[in-house]
Model the fold of this input.
Amino acid sequence: MNKQQNEEKNTPDVFKSLLEELNQAGYKLSGNIVVNIYRSGSQHVDRVENQYIGIRPTKAATKDKATAPKTATKAKPPKASTKPKASTNPKHPAAPLPDSLRSQLRECLALLMQERFGSEPLLNRQSHWQAVYRILVDKGYCADSDFNGFDSFIRGVMPEVVNKPYTKGSVKMISQTPFVRPFGEWKFDPLIFKTRKPFERMVAVASRFLTLMDEHGLVKKRPNS
Done:
């Protein structure tokens, strides 16, 4: 009797039945199979410490893997900054405005108050100071969006008599209107203006103030020249 026949003879029927079911289920048997048999009603706990496929690693191989240096991760390139670039327009003029230019600007504003638009003063709303702000910014006398700087500047050249008092808040509202763009880019938009009159009135204030500044030599003569 050969070895295989001897093993089959000594194998209980219950084990043979179990092995046959495993084979039918497609379970591949590899190595030794340990089967624990417990008496009915007994308490037991089975725990599998490790399970290996193929050759079981030695303790030395496991230790080498644990102590192997980690692969250096590639540094991520820095993200491109989404912060808007700072304006090249200075917050304040590089030098104080000379008294001669200050006097000329005050005179231009005084003459602007005398201008007429039909039967009424040309500048007769607080919002019309936005046109004055726009021209002074375009010609380099004030910095764009620096409403605190403009407030300090305009109070220094304000004439004694004005048709409508200036307020920083009314000028600051320009940021919510098409007049925030340079004067040369103003265009009538029927989706914003119900009629052309408010737009044309603002254009007339800005245009006339620009003309007065040009007549006094204040357009080509920059404040720091």
User: Anything to note?
Assistant: Strands lie at 116-117, 120-121. The longest strand covers residues 116-117.
